[in-house]
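Students often ask why we bother encoding 3D structure as a string. The short answer is that it lets us treat folding as translation between two languages. Here is a chain of 310 residues written in the first language.
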Amino acid sequence: MKRVLASIALLYAAFAVTFAQNMAEATEIAQSANESLTAGDYQSALDGFRKALAIADAAGENGTALASVCKGVIPKTLIALAKQKIMNNLPDGALADISEAARLAAANGDSQTAENAKALIPQAYMKKGMALLNNKSFDAAAEAYGKALEADPDNGLAALRYGMALEGADRTEAAIKAYSLAAENGQEKNAHAQLGKFYIKRALENLKSKNLAQAVEDATVSYSYVANPQALQIAGQASHLLGKSADAINFFEKYLEAAPAAANAGQIAYTVGALYQQSGSLEKAREYFSKAVSDAKYGADAKKALDALK
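And here it is in the second language, the structure alphabet:
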């Protein structure tokens, strides 16, 4: 019996020596990981802290203190690594790190670190969305920007780029809503620029397809967002083709005021003169024919029209 007790005592002593050696190793690994963390080598730091934690956990009560330290620093290291991956255009890897950091921090009762991790989610999705948008992968980009908005509903830039992705994917109604959301959240100028381009493009398409009433409406909406003279020209042309002379004159006159040196200013002035002549407003007809007489293409016709009105 004494021999058995002695053997057990020796075994416990051996375990104690082993645990001590293991904890010394774990402490050394954790110190090296901390040096890597300070140097910005976050992956090496993370690997080291994880290894130290595994040893400390295996040591039971003897490793409690070191395990607690590792559990506290690992989520923070994951956040630092995620930020680095976002900067290096590795958003998917960053999102995985963010998710793990939030989970570990929450399990450790560290709500602040968990919130800090979640705050990075929009940044990662913004980076992912931009790469996809630049590659014209519009549906995938829209999905990424949608995720960014789920995490941060007031992110005006995310809403703006979400609209661009949706527009590229021909999801026009959703794009308009996204641009409107962007305008409400600090991106009014950029959102209005996108809306102006969207509506003027659609106005041109409707003009070409002879959907004239819609062309006028789209051009008018476009001009309400961006004072682009081309929108006035399109509205004037569509109104002219619709036989709405007064509306055409109104749009064309505004166009000439906004773009007096435009290459087609002479042509537009001649058209306005002809419309006024048709309506019986001869003085106004003379005024606009006079503006067209120096035009290389329409000048001769404008001079004939003026001579006929004398």
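Translate back mentally: The radius of gyration is 36 Å. Keep this in mind for the problem set.
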